[in-house]
Amino acid sequence: MSDWLQQVLNGTPDAATVEHLRRGFEIWMRSGRRSKRDADGHLIRARPVSLSRCLGLPDKPDLVRLAQRDAYLRSAGQLLGDSLSPTQSVATALSLEAKRFAGHRWLCWAHMTQPPPNAEDIDRLLFLAMQAGGGRLPTTARQFATILKS
Q1: Measured between alpha carbons, how far is 19 from 13 in angstroms, rounded to an integer?
Q2: Coil, strand or helix: which one is 86?
Q3: Which of 8, 66, 77, 120 has the smallest number of Cβ neighbours within 10 A?
Q4: End position of a domain, from candidates 55, 74, 97
Q5: pTM of the full predicted structure?
Q6: Both 126 and 66 in a single domain?
Q7: Whether 28 contacts 51, CB under 8 Å
Q8: Which residues pair with 44 in a beta bridge?
Q9: What is each CA distance from 113 to 109, 110, 116, 124, 137, in whole angstroms?
Q10: Are residues 108 and 145 both part of a single domain?
Q11: Which residue range forms the structural domain that includes residue 23?
Q12: Which residues in the chain belong to E strands, given as ranges?
């Protein structure tokens, strides 16, 4: 997921994010302004470019939410990677943490809009990933490994 999108969703856009949005809206506003006529003189309206394309987003929100979920999971993987032994896989550890979280914490926190302030960093990231993923996370270490590699 784009850093600029995360900043907008968090309500903390920096100057580069505002400029990116300004340029995207400007391109979108200019698209499709000029109509042409065909050989018979019928007006052919120019088709505007989608706003999502101008901003560099996929057309479907589901794809953005999955990208957002994966970004949170990669952050959680980085957090776990600092505390693992050399023989333990980050994907396996993240899979175990996700199962632990989904089996207990998520059941208690699912109705919340934000994780509790006293939540551990790993639980905060898994909460945000679960929320972006519509209440679901990958289930196998292999799926987590694929996400961590991207």
Answers
A1: 10
A2: coil
A3: 120
A4: 55
A5: 0.75
A6: yes
A7: yes
A8: 36
A9: 9, 8, 9, 12, 17
A10: yes
A11: 3-55
A12: 36-37, 43-44
Each as own residue / partner, the long-range contacts of residues 15-24 (CB below 8 Å, 24 or more positions apart, any chain) are 20/55, 20/56, 21/55, 24/51, 24/54, 24/55, 24/56
The answer to whether residues 103 and 82 belong to one domain is yes
Local structure of 27: helix, strand or coil: helix
Specify the length of the chain in residues.
150
pLDDT in tens, 95-130: 999 999 999 999 999 999 999 999 999 999 999 999
Beta bridge partners of 36: 44
49-87 CB burial, b ≥16 within 10 A, e <16: eeebebbebeeeeeebbbbbbbbbbbbbbebbeeeeeee
65 shares its domain with 44: no
Does residue 102 sit in the same domain as residue 136?
Answer: yes
Residues 65 and 138 in one domain: yes
